[in-house]
TrEMBL record:
It comes from the Bacteria. It comes from Hydrogenispora ethanolica. Keywords: Cytoplasm, GTP-binding, Hydrolase, Metal-binding, Nucleotide-binding, Ribosome biogenesis, RNA-binding, rRNA-binding, Zinc. This is Small ribosomal subunit biogenesis GTPase RsgA. One of its GO terms (biological process) is ribosomal small subunit biogenesis. PANTHER family: SMALL RIBOSOMAL SUBUNIT BIOGENESIS GTPASE RSGA, SMALL RIBOSOMAL SUBUNIT BIOGENESIS GTPASE RSGA 1, MITOCHONDRIAL-RELATED. Zn(2+) binds at residues 245, 250, 252, 258. It is found in: Cytoplasm.
Protein backbone atom coordinates (compact mmCIF):
# COMPACT_ATOMS: atom_id res chain seq x y z
CA UNK A 1 0.00 0.00 0.00
CA UNK A 2 1.07 3.56 -0.64
CA UNK A 3 0.58 6.48 1.70
CA UNK A 4 2.04 9.75 2.92
CA UNK A 5 3.81 10.30 6.22
CA UNK A 6 1.86 13.07 7.96
CA UNK A 7 3.43 13.03 11.40
CA UNK A 8 6.40 11.46 13.22
CA UNK A 9 6.40 10.90 16.96
CA UNK A 10 8.97 8.92 18.93
CA UNK A 11 10.07 6.64 16.12
CA UNK A 12 6.54 6.01 14.88
CA UNK A 13 5.38 7.15 11.49
CA UNK A 14 1.76 8.10 10.94
CA UNK A 15 0.82 7.28 7.38
CA UNK A 16 -2.25 8.60 5.60
CA UNK A 17 -3.31 5.98 3.02
CA UNK A 18 -3.68 7.18 -0.56
CA UNK A 19 -7.13 5.59 -0.72
CA UNK A 20 -9.50 6.99 1.92
CA UNK A 21 -9.09 5.28 5.28
CA UNK A 22 -7.79 5.84 8.79
CA UNK A 23 -4.19 6.88 9.47
CA UNK A 24 -1.87 3.89 10.06
CA UNK A 25 0.82 3.95 12.74
CA UNK A 26 3.96 2.41 11.22
CA UNK A 27 7.45 1.33 12.21
CA UNK A 28 10.30 1.13 9.68
CA UNK A 29 11.55 -2.17 8.27
CA UNK A 30 14.99 -2.82 9.78
CA UNK A 31 17.00 -2.91 6.57
CA UNK A 32 15.31 0.25 5.31
CA UNK A 33 16.61 2.12 8.37
CA UNK A 34 20.14 1.54 7.15
CA UNK A 35 19.43 2.62 3.59
CA UNK A 36 17.57 5.89 4.14
CA UNK A 37 18.82 8.97 5.92
CA UNK A 38 15.58 9.07 7.79
CA UNK A 39 12.01 9.44 6.69
CA UNK A 40 10.49 12.90 6.71
CA UNK A 41 6.96 14.15 7.09
CA UNK A 42 5.68 14.44 3.52
CA UNK A 43 7.45 11.34 2.23
CA UNK A 44 5.48 8.93 0.09
CA UNK A 45 6.03 5.41 1.39
CA UNK A 46 5.11 1.83 0.60
CA UNK A 47 3.94 -0.06 3.63
CA UNK A 48 2.36 -3.33 4.67
CA UNK A 49 0.24 -4.26 7.64
CA UNK A 50 1.57 -7.35 9.43
CA UNK A 51 -0.43 -10.18 11.02
CA UNK A 52 -0.62 -8.27 14.34
CA UNK A 53 -2.18 -5.29 12.58
CA UNK A 54 0.93 -3.13 12.82
CA UNK A 55 2.10 -1.09 9.89
CA UNK A 56 5.62 -1.42 8.54
CA UNK A 57 7.23 0.94 6.04
CA UNK A 58 9.21 -1.01 3.43
CA UNK A 59 10.16 1.64 0.91
CA UNK A 60 10.43 5.42 0.51
CA UNK A 61 9.69 6.91 -2.90
CA UNK A 62 12.23 9.39 -4.32
CA UNK A 63 11.65 12.93 -3.01
CA UNK A 64 10.69 15.79 -5.30
CA UNK A 65 11.83 18.44 -2.84
CA UNK A 66 12.92 18.99 0.73
CA UNK A 67 11.94 22.13 2.58
CA UNK A 68 14.17 22.69 5.60
CA UNK A 69 12.19 25.20 7.65
CA UNK A 70 10.05 23.34 8.56
CA UNK A 71 11.50 19.98 7.57
CA UNK A 72 8.98 18.53 5.11
CA UNK A 73 9.50 16.46 1.97
CA UNK A 74 7.66 16.92 -1.32
CA UNK A 75 6.23 20.37 -0.60
CA UNK A 76 5.18 21.94 -3.90
CA UNK A 77 3.53 25.17 -2.76
CA UNK A 78 4.64 27.68 -0.15
CA UNK A 79 1.85 30.06 0.87
CA UNK A 80 3.33 33.15 2.50
CA UNK A 81 0.67 34.85 4.59
CA UNK A 82 0.78 38.47 5.74
CA UNK A 83 -1.94 40.82 6.96
CA UNK A 84 -3.00 44.18 5.50
CA UNK A 85 -3.06 45.35 9.11
CA UNK A 86 -3.03 43.98 12.66
CA UNK A 87 -0.16 43.13 12.43
CA UNK A 88 0.91 45.73 9.87
CA UNK A 89 2.99 44.45 6.96
CA UNK A 90 6.74 45.10 7.40
CA UNK A 91 8.41 45.24 3.97
CA UNK A 92 11.80 43.98 5.17
CA UNK A 93 10.22 41.02 6.97
CA UNK A 94 8.12 40.22 3.89
CA UNK A 95 11.26 40.27 1.74
CA UNK A 96 12.99 37.94 4.19
CA UNK A 97 10.18 35.42 3.92
CA UNK A 98 10.28 35.81 0.13
CA UNK A 99 14.04 35.24 0.00
CA UNK A 100 13.73 32.15 2.19
CA UNK A 101 10.99 30.82 -0.03
CA UNK A 102 12.84 31.62 -3.30
CA UNK A 103 15.92 29.87 -1.90
CA UNK A 104 13.89 26.70 -1.43
CA UNK A 105 13.05 26.69 -5.14
CA UNK A 106 9.43 25.80 -4.37
CA UNK A 107 6.72 27.90 -6.10
CA UNK A 108 5.18 30.42 -3.75
CA UNK A 109 2.03 32.49 -3.39
CA UNK A 110 1.72 35.67 -1.33
CA UNK A 111 -1.54 36.04 0.57
CA UNK A 112 -2.45 39.37 2.12
CA UNK A 113 -5.16 38.55 4.64
CA UNK A 114 -7.52 40.74 6.73
CA UNK A 115 -8.52 42.72 3.62
CA UNK A 116 -11.73 43.61 5.49
CA UNK A 117 -9.74 45.89 7.80
CA UNK A 118 -8.46 48.31 5.12
CA UNK A 119 -9.87 50.43 2.28
CA UNK A 120 -9.97 48.70 -1.10
CA UNK A 121 -7.54 51.18 -2.65
CA UNK A 122 -4.95 50.54 0.04
CA UNK A 123 -5.29 46.78 -0.29
CA UNK A 124 -4.91 46.90 -4.08
CA UNK A 125 -1.87 49.14 -3.82
CA UNK A 126 -0.01 46.71 -1.57
CA UNK A 127 -0.96 43.68 -3.67
CA UNK A 128 -0.02 45.39 -6.94
CA UNK A 129 3.36 46.40 -5.57
CA UNK A 130 4.34 42.77 -5.04
CA UNK A 131 2.77 41.76 -8.36
CA UNK A 132 5.05 44.29 -10.04
CA UNK A 133 8.06 42.43 -8.59
CA UNK A 134 6.79 39.26 -10.28
CA UNK A 135 4.97 37.48 -7.45
CA UNK A 136 1.58 35.82 -7.42
CA UNK A 137 -0.55 37.68 -4.92
CA UNK A 138 -3.98 37.01 -3.49
CA UNK A 139 -5.98 39.20 -1.12
CA UNK A 140 -8.16 37.34 1.34
CA UNK A 141 -10.47 37.93 4.26
CA UNK A 142 -11.60 35.23 6.61
CA UNK A 143 -14.32 37.63 7.80
CA UNK A 144 -15.97 37.89 4.38
CA UNK A 145 -14.67 34.68 2.72
CA UNK A 146 -12.81 36.81 0.18
CA UNK A 147 -10.43 34.74 -1.94
CA UNK A 148 -11.69 31.41 -0.64
CA UNK A 149 -12.20 29.82 -4.06
CA UNK A 150 -8.85 30.99 -5.42
CA UNK A 151 -6.97 29.79 -2.35
CA UNK A 152 -8.66 26.39 -2.56
CA UNK A 153 -7.61 26.14 -6.20
CA UNK A 154 -4.03 27.05 -5.30
CA UNK A 155 -3.64 24.21 -2.79
CA UNK A 156 -5.71 21.58 -4.61
CA UNK A 157 -3.72 18.41 -5.25
CA UNK A 158 -0.62 19.89 -3.61
CA UNK A 159 1.42 19.69 -0.44
CA UNK A 160 1.35 23.27 0.84
CA UNK A 161 3.09 24.95 3.72
CA UNK A 162 1.50 28.06 5.23
CA UNK A 163 4.15 30.34 6.69
CA UNK A 164 4.28 33.93 7.86
CA UNK A 165 4.46 36.15 10.92
CA UNK A 166 2.40 35.44 14.01
CA UNK A 167 -1.22 36.58 14.10
CA UNK A 168 -1.73 37.18 10.36
CA UNK A 169 -4.42 34.49 10.15
CA UNK A 170 -2.70 31.34 8.86
CA UNK A 171 -4.80 29.03 10.99
CA UNK A 172 -7.95 31.05 10.30
CA UNK A 173 -7.34 30.78 6.52
CA UNK A 174 -6.88 27.02 6.78
CA UNK A 175 -10.13 26.78 8.71
CA UNK A 176 -11.80 28.87 5.99
CA UNK A 177 -10.80 26.49 3.20
CA UNK A 178 -11.12 23.30 5.30
CA UNK A 179 -13.59 23.86 8.15
CA UNK A 180 -13.09 20.27 9.33
CA UNK A 181 -9.60 21.14 10.58
CA UNK A 182 -10.89 23.25 13.50
CA UNK A 183 -7.46 24.76 14.08
CA UNK A 184 -7.06 27.01 17.11
CA UNK A 185 -6.91 30.69 16.26
CA UNK A 186 -6.39 33.50 18.66
CA UNK A 187 -5.23 36.91 19.61
CA UNK A 188 -1.52 37.43 19.10
CA UNK A 189 -0.68 37.94 22.77
CA UNK A 190 -2.50 34.76 23.86
CA UNK A 191 -0.62 32.71 21.29
CA UNK A 192 2.80 34.00 22.20
CA UNK A 193 2.17 33.00 25.80
CA UNK A 194 1.04 29.54 24.80
CA UNK A 195 3.74 28.88 22.24
CA UNK A 196 6.73 30.01 24.21
CA UNK A 197 7.85 26.73 25.72
CA UNK A 198 6.22 24.21 23.46
CA UNK A 199 7.68 23.35 20.09
CA UNK A 200 4.86 22.24 17.86
CA UNK A 201 6.02 19.30 15.77
CA UNK A 202 5.50 19.36 12.03
CA UNK A 203 2.30 17.80 10.83
CA UNK A 204 0.55 17.53 7.50
CA UNK A 205 -3.21 17.81 7.45
CA UNK A 206 -5.23 16.24 4.67
CA UNK A 207 -7.82 18.65 3.27
CA UNK A 208 -8.85 16.80 0.13
CA UNK A 209 -7.82 14.01 -2.24
CA UNK A 210 -4.01 14.35 -2.51
CA UNK A 211 -4.17 17.80 -0.89
CA UNK A 212 -2.17 18.40 2.27
CA UNK A 213 -1.37 21.51 4.26
CA UNK A 214 1.04 22.32 7.07
CA UNK A 215 0.35 25.18 9.46
CA UNK A 216 3.61 26.53 10.84
CA UNK A 217 3.91 28.54 14.03
CA UNK A 218 4.33 32.20 13.17
CA UNK A 219 7.81 33.56 13.57
CA UNK A 220 9.13 37.09 13.51
CA UNK A 221 12.83 36.21 13.38
CA UNK A 222 14.36 34.62 10.33
CA UNK A 223 18.10 34.09 10.16
CA UNK A 224 19.49 34.14 6.63
CA UNK A 225 22.50 32.22 7.90
CA UNK A 226 22.67 29.52 5.27
CA UNK A 227 23.43 31.32 2.00
CA UNK A 228 26.44 32.80 0.27
CA UNK A 229 26.31 36.59 -0.15
CA UNK A 230 26.56 36.18 -3.94
CA UNK A 231 23.42 33.99 -3.95
CA UNK A 232 21.11 36.64 -2.46
CA UNK A 233 20.45 38.69 -5.62
CA UNK A 234 19.21 35.52 -7.34
CA UNK A 235 16.35 35.41 -4.83
CA UNK A 236 14.99 38.78 -5.99
CA UNK A 237 13.13 37.60 -9.13
CA UNK A 238 12.94 41.02 -10.81
CA UNK A 239 16.75 41.42 -10.61
CA UNK A 240 17.18 38.57 -13.10
CA UNK A 241 16.20 40.87 -15.99
CA UNK A 242 19.54 42.67 -15.50
CA UNK A 243 22.38 40.16 -15.75
CA UNK A 244 26.01 40.72 -16.76
CA UNK A 245 27.41 43.35 -14.46
CA UNK A 246 31.04 44.20 -15.31
CA UNK A 247 32.27 41.85 -12.56
CA UNK A 248 30.78 38.36 -12.48
CA UNK A 249 31.18 38.44 -8.68
CA UNK A 250 29.29 41.76 -8.44
CA UNK A 251 27.31 42.10 -5.21
CA UNK A 252 25.61 45.21 -6.63
CA UNK A 253 26.87 47.40 -3.81
CA UNK A 254 29.65 49.79 -4.81
CA UNK A 255 31.09 48.04 -7.85
CA UNK A 256 31.41 50.01 -11.11
CA UNK A 257 29.20 49.23 -14.12
CA UNK A 258 26.61 47.40 -12.06
CA UNK A 259 23.48 46.72 -14.09
CA UNK A 260 21.29 46.33 -10.99
CA UNK A 261 22.27 49.77 -9.70
CA UNK A 262 21.70 51.09 -13.21
CA UNK A 263 18.20 49.64 -13.23
CA UNK A 264 17.46 51.19 -9.82
CA UNK A 265 18.60 54.63 -11.04
CA UNK A 266 16.44 54.25 -14.14
CA UNK A 267 13.42 53.36 -11.99
CA UNK A 268 13.22 49.85 -13.45
CA UNK A 269 13.87 48.19 -10.09
CA UNK A 270 12.00 49.58 -7.07
CA UNK A 271 14.29 51.54 -4.73
CA UNK A 272 12.54 49.92 -1.76
CA UNK A 273 13.50 46.46 -2.98
CA UNK A 274 17.09 47.46 -3.64
CA UNK A 275 17.31 48.96 -0.12
CA UNK A 276 15.97 45.72 1.35
CA UNK A 277 18.49 43.80 -0.74
CA UNK A 278 21.34 45.88 0.73
CA UNK A 279 20.08 45.34 4.29
CA UNK A 280 19.69 41.61 3.86
CA UNK A 281 23.06 41.45 2.11
CA UNK A 282 24.71 43.00 5.16
CA UNK A 283 23.05 40.37 7.34
CA UNK A 284 24.03 37.48 5.06
CA UNK A 285 27.61 38.76 4.89
CA UNK A 286 27.76 39.01 8.68
CA UNK A 287 26.80 35.35 9.11
CA UNK A 288 29.12 34.29 6.32
CA UNK A 289 32.15 36.11 7.72
CA UNK A 290 31.52 34.74 11.21
CA UNK A 291 31.50 31.24 9.82
CA UNK A 292 34.63 31.50 7.68
CA UNK A 293 36.77 33.87 9.68
N1 LIG B 1 -10.57 41.01 10.75
C1 LIG B 1 -9.99 39.85 10.46
N2 LIG B 1 -9.43 39.10 11.45
C2 LIG B 1 -8.85 37.93 11.11
C3 LIG B 1 -8.80 37.46 9.77
N3 LIG B 1 -8.15 36.30 9.74
C4 LIG B 1 -7.79 36.03 11.02
N4 LIG B 1 -8.20 37.00 11.86
C5 LIG B 1 -7.97 37.07 13.32
O1 LIG B 1 -6.57 37.22 13.57
C6 LIG B 1 -6.18 36.53 14.75
C7 LIG B 1 -5.02 35.61 14.47
O2 LIG B 1 -5.42 34.57 13.60
P1 LIG B 1 -4.68 33.15 13.53
O3 LIG B 1 -5.30 32.35 12.46
O4 LIG B 1 -4.65 32.56 14.89
O5 LIG B 1 -3.20 33.64 13.14
P2 LIG B 1 -1.90 32.74 12.81
O6 LIG B 1 -1.23 33.35 11.65
O7 LIG B 1 -2.26 31.31 12.69
O8 LIG B 1 -1.03 33.00 14.12
P3 LIG B 1 0.16 32.08 14.76
O9 LIG B 1 -0.43 30.74 15.06
O10 LIG B 1 0.59 32.85 15.97
O11 LIG B 1 1.25 32.01 13.74
C8 LIG B 1 -7.44 35.81 15.23
O12 LIG B 1 -8.02 36.56 16.27
C9 LIG B 1 -8.34 35.77 14.02
O13 LIG B 1 -9.70 35.74 14.34
C10 LIG B 1 -9.42 38.28 8.75
O14 LIG B 1 -9.43 37.97 7.54
N5 LIG B 1 -9.99 39.45 9.16
ZN1 LIG C 1 26.00 44.41 -10.05
Amino acid sequence: MVGRVVRIIGGFYFVEPQTPGPIVECAIRGRLKLKTQGILVGDLVKYTIDEDGRGVINEVEPRQSVLTRPYIANVNRVVLVFAHCNPDPIPLLIDKFLVLSEASGIPNLIVFNKTDLVATGKADKLANKYRSYGYNVLCTSVRSNLGKRRLLQEVKGKVSVFAGPSGVGKSALLNMIAPGLRLKTGAVSEKIGRGKHTTREVQLLKIGPDSYVADTPGFSQIALDFMKPEALAGYYPEFSAYPNCRFTSCLHETEPDCRIKGAVSAGLIAAERYQSYLELLAEVKGYWEKRYR
